[in-house]
Structures are given as C-alpha cells and as structure tokens.
Specification:
The chain is α/β, with parallel strands linked by helices. The chain contains 12 helices and 11 strands. A hairpin with a 5-residue loop joins strand 1 (49-50) and strand 2. The model has no long low-confidence stretch (mean pLDDT 95).
Length: 294
C-alpha cells in the first residue's frame, strides 16, 4: 500500500520545484516533506527526486505522480459524503485559454485546475510524460493509453494596425517587405507566423520579431503598431470590424486543428470536463472536416 501523503509531497516538490514551496502548499514543514519523500524512496527502493534548482522527479517519480493524480481524480468522482476537490492538471495552449477554455472549466464544479500553458504543437509531450491528465493539442494521436476528442479549428488572422501597414508594407505583402517588417512571436515554439509567411510568400523569409508570451499582449501590440502577428479570430474580430486592425491579406486565414486528449484510465472521471470542452469549443471553433458537432 502506497503512502498517499508522501505521494502528495512528491507531486508538490516536482511541480513547485522546491521543498519549501511544496511545504507551503501542503501546510507542513519542509522537514516533513523531506521525511515523507525519503520514506517513499526507501519504500520504493529508488531515487524519486533530483535535488537541485529546481527539484524535479525522476522517471520513477513521474510514474508515481501520474498514479497519484489518477487515484485522486477517480476518488473525486465517487459519491462520497464529504468529497474533497481533486486538482486536475492539464496542458492548454494560451490562445485556447484566452478564447474558449475558461467557460468550460467554470462549467465543471468540484475540481481545482492546475493549468500548464504550452504550445498546441508540444502540449501532447506533457501527456506522454504523464505530467498532465489531459492536453489541448494539435496532434490527433494516436497516443498509447489515451483517447482523443476532436474539438475544431481555431482560426488565426494575420493582422496589423493601419499605421503599421502604411509604414512597413505600403506595397502589401511582399518578400522584401515581410523580411523587414517587425513581427510578433509568442515563444521559440510558436511557428504560426512562419507557417503563414511560408504559405503566402514561399520559404526562407527571416523577419525581425518581438517576443511576447501573452495572447492579449499580441492583440495589444498589433493595435499599438508594434508588429504584425497571427491573432485568434475571436480576439480580433471586433477590432477588424472597426478598422483598428487590418488583415495583411484579405481572406487568407490560418486554421489550426485542436483536439482534447486524455488518459483512457481516467476517461469516466473526466467525462464532465470532456462534455464541457466540446460544448465550449463548438461555440468558438470552426468544425473540422467531417466532424460531428452534435
């Protein structure tokens, strides 16, 4: 029988990155956290935490954390007289969080959410490592031990302010102009701007870019004339209608397919969230080809 307070300590150390922060989360002393993990390591006969800055779980530790998360989630779904909310850790891309995910989370009571924000192209890696119970991802799968629910297409529009276009792109979208015009990039994993440019102007364009790790920051930067970028349609439709933003090329959006992927073992416990995701996504995303939105 595993010691679940010790597993809770292990998960907290890995996710907070330090024994003192884990202790603060659990309401115990750092010494108590250390003792719990040391006892668990003795019980398992393996190193579970790499002590460092930050502290991280070993592969064995990650498997135990995954087991702990699944047990807590399954217990939270039981009809107990005094249920305690389970913490559900999921990976979500920032643009989904800013456009349609929050209403879905609010529609599912009885859970606490720990949101890992990462690009939709790599969020599946969090699920593969067992660090999250589910992920909003651009990969439909298959991923061993997981189920996938198609959600829809998030439409992106290449946008900039009228003043920006007049200054940097007076002749429209050309290779020469796009190589000089400052762009906006969310992170090193963000390829949306390059993908759109490659489609519209061909490969090989390198452009100067601001790095802004914020969906709303992208919109604000475009409005201020700081740069051009791929913005989600739900965040910029009103600005486009009012003329505050303009499409770099009319009717040339970039659609990104999104899927909800989760561990099959916890599918029954995750069913309310899965239903909420499907409902919320249907209000904002475009349907995938052949997708049944009923």
């Amino acid at each position: 029988m595993l010691d679940y307070p010790a597993l809770a300590a292990l998960a907290a150390v890995h996710r907070r990155g330090a024994f003192d922060l884990a202790a603060a989360q659990l309401g115990v002393t750092p010494s108590a956290v250390s003792q719990r993990i040391k006892g668990l390591e003795d019980r398992i006969g393996a190193l579970l935490v790499r002590r460092g800055q930050p502290c991280t779980a070993t592969d064995t530790g990650l498997r135990l954390i995954q087991h702990f998360d699944e047990v807590m989630l399954l217990e939270a779904a039981l009809p107990l007289p005094d249920p305690q909310p389970a913490t559900l850790r999921i990976a979500v891309n920032a643009d989904s969080l800013s456009t349609w995910v929050i209403p879905a989370l609010a529609a599912v009571p009885g859970l606490l959410f720990d949101i890992v924000i990462d690009d939709q192209d790599v969020s599946q890696d969090w699920l593969r490592r067992g660090e999250v119970a589910g992920a909003i991802t651009s990969h439909p799968g298959p991923l061993q031990g997981c189920d996938t629910v198609p959600l829809g297409l998030l439409r992106y529009i290449a946008t900039a302010s009228p003043a920006f276009l007049q200054h940097w792109l007076p002749d429209g979208v050309t290779r020469q102009g796009m190589a000089a015009a400052p762009g906006l990039t969310y992170s090193d994993l963000d390829t949306l701007q390059h993908d759109w440019l490659r489609r519209e102007c061909g490969p090989g364009i390198v452009f100067p870019t601001h790095r802004i790790a914020s969906s709303q920051g992208f919109v604000d930067a475009a409005l201020a004339g700081l740069g051009w970028g791929m913005n989600p349609w739900p965040l910029v439709s009103a600005h486009l209608a009012a003329g505050r933003l303009i499409e770099l090329r009319a009717d040339r959006p970039l659609d990104v397919a999104l899927h909800w992927q989760f561990a099959r073992r916890t599918a029954p416990a995750l069913a309310p969230l899965t239903r909420a995701f499907r409902r919320a996504a249907a209000q904002v995303l475009l349907p995938l080809p052949g997708q049944n939105t009923a």
